[in-house]
Write a structure and sequence with these properties.
Blueprint: H1 2-15, H2 21-34, H3 92-95, H4 105-114, H5 116-156
Length: about 160
C-alpha cells in the first residue's frame, strides 16, 4: 500500500518536474541523496514532456534525465548539468557508467519503513500543539458564552430601576 502511494507521488512529480522550481529542487535532492533516478528506473523520465524520448518531441532535453541522476565525480569542481543528455536512448549497462539507473520508489519506501518512528514522532510533535490550541480556543469560547449569559441575566434582573 505504501509502495503504491509513493509510486503515484513520484510519477506525478516526474510529470510536473519542470513546472515548479520547488518540486524540481525536491526531486533533485532526493535523487542525489538516495543515489537513484526516476521512479522504477531512469526510463521513467519519458513521462515528462521535456525528457520524453519520442521523435515528435522538439525539446533539447529529449531522451535525457536530470543532472541529479548523474554519478558524482569527487574531483569535479563544477557540476555538469548536461551530464544526463541522451541517457534514455542508451541501454541500462551503457547508461550505468554515467547515471544511477535504479529507481527511487523502492529506496524511498525502505527509508520510510526504517524511519517510521521518527516520522511518527514528528507527526505527533506537530499534532499535539494543534490539539492544545483547539482545546484552549474551546475553553475561551465557553468562557465568553458564560460572560454573555451573565451580562444578559444582570440586565434582566436589575435591583435598582434607575440604574
Amino acid at each position: 500500500q505504501a509502495r503504491g502511494k509513493v509510486s503515484e507521488i513520484i510519477n506525478g512529480a516526474i510529470v510536473h518536474y519542470r513546472d515548479d522550481l520547488d518540486l524540481q529542487n525536491i526531486i533533485d535532492f532526493g535523487q542525489k541523496e538516495f543515489s537513484c533516478c526516476g521512479g522504477v528506473s531512469y526510463k521513467d523520465w519519458s513521462q515528462n514532456m521535456y525528457f520524453n524520448c519520442t521523435a515528435a518531441n522538439p525539446s533539447r532535453e529529449r531522451c535525457s534525465v536530470p543532472f541529479s541522476c548523474c554519478l558524482r565525480d569527487a574531483a569535479e569542481v563544477v557540476i555538469n548539468t548536461m551530464c544526463g543528455q541522451g541517457m534514455q536512448a542508451m541501454s541500462y549497462l551503457e547508461a550505468s557508467a554515467f547515471i544511477h539507473t535504479n529507481g527511487c520508489i523502492d529506496k524511498l519506501v525502505n527509508w520510510i519503513h526504517s524511519n517510521l518512528f521518527l516520522l511518527g514522532g514528528i507527526a505527533l510533535g506537530l499534532a499535539v500543539p494543534q490539539l492544545v490550541g483547539i482545546l484552549l480556543a474551546q475553553i475561551l469560547i465557553n468562557q465568553i458564552r458564560d460572560q454573555v449569559k451573565l451580562q444578559l441575566y444582570n440586565q434582566q434582573h436589575r435591583a435598582d430601576p434607575w440604574y
